[in-house]
Amino acid sequence: MHHVPPDERLPVIAVRPFPRGQRAVRAVVVAAALVVDLWVWGGDTETWDGGRAPATLIVAVMAASHLCLVLWRSPVPGYAALWLLSLSGMWVPAVETFAGYLVALYLMARMTDRHVAVAALMGSVVPIAANTASGASFHENVDAVFLLMNSGLWVLLMLSVWGVGRVIARSDLRLTTERRWAEETTAEALAMERLRLSRELHDIVAHSLTGIVLQSAGARAGLVRGTAQGHQVEEALQNIQTAAEQSMRELHRLLGMLREPGQPDAQGDGIEQVDGLIATARASGLDVVVRTSGDPLALDPSIAHTVYRVVQEGLSNAMKHSGDGSRVEVTTDWAPETLAVSVMSTSGLSSPAAPSGGFGLVGLRERVVVSGGTFEAGPTAQGFLLHTTLPAAGQHRIPVEKNAEEN
């Protein structure tokens, strides 16, 4: 269980936001409390000195005091208004507004800091005393037992309402803190994955540029010495163009991906190593079926590694949640410009298996999106489906032939 650090606690005057979906409920509860207080009052306007107070004034003051709980997001104005209204029993004994005051006390306990909530609870001594005094005025020969029972009842009721509010407040704060920590952890996982991707692409581009330099240097040396044949120069230029086009695509994926320093993730496994993953899964007892359609194309190294990671994550998830009769289908569908990879796992369990609780899918989604693909993952009726679509052909071409024709 996480504990809220002292520096993350709310300041003394801070007010926690009331859940948006419960604001209407708050208004309904306050309106109901006003109706109860008006019903308890009953219209008796007799004052302590035997006079009469204007009934319209009493109704207006009661309505305005309750309305303060709705007009302001903070419960402090409403609590203060109802606290003062409770003192009206010292003038008109029949006026008791404990329903509204209990709502205000609950909101203070739930929405304010502990110190303010405790102060509100301590302030309840005054309304209890006023209620006890007004109650005694309606009964003759009031003894100490009556006063004790009347006061004890209200103390118990207020402590219960205040306690419920504090429990819910602590629960809300804990959930908010844990949600924020989860968001920060997810963001950190995404940043780490993007950093690993950027390092991988940096190595790929550096390797391609090294090849371009060597190819161009060799072609130039052959031309200078006069030993290079035409087809050799053409082959070298073709290799340079292919490497440059690949570098452009990888650089396009690299843009905007650099983050704070982290642990590098060496790249090397590609689509050629998928068969090894499948063999390992089968050796562990998992029934793996492979389906392939379309004509395979040459993939950029980062795309090939992403395919490897997709299959790896799908098989890993299947092995974690496998049972009797577990089965996995690995499907690759080649199209002229895209490659669709699906890993459908049937857990063999009586109920669908939940996905892994780690950040494998989070990082994998980021990797696929950065690579220019689409990513879908979720439970099915009997297992889990992982589906991605990746670009199989580069979209950035160097118009060498077109420029040559124009020249």
Automatic annotation (TrEMBL):
Signal transduction histidine kinase subgroup 3 dimerisation and phosphoacceptor domain: residues covered: 193-261
UniProt KW Ligase keyword: no
Signal sequence interval, chain numbering: none
Ranges that cross the membrane: 24-41, 53-72, 78-104, 116-138, 144-165
Listed EC numbers: 2.7.13.3
Keywords from the named record: ATP-binding, Kinase, Membrane, Nucleotide-binding, Phosphoprotein, Transferase, Transmembrane, Transmembrane helix, Two-component regulatory system
Keyword Metal-binding: no
Catalytic activity: ATP + protein L-histidine = ADP + protein N-phospho-L-histidine
SUPFAM superfamilies reported for this sequence: ATPase domain of HSP90 chaperone/DNA topoisomerase II/histidine kinase
PANTHER family: NITRATE/NITRITE SENSOR PROTEIN NARX-RELATED, NITRATE_NITRITE SENSOR PROTEIN NARQ
Record protein name field: histidine kinase
Organism: Kocuria coralli
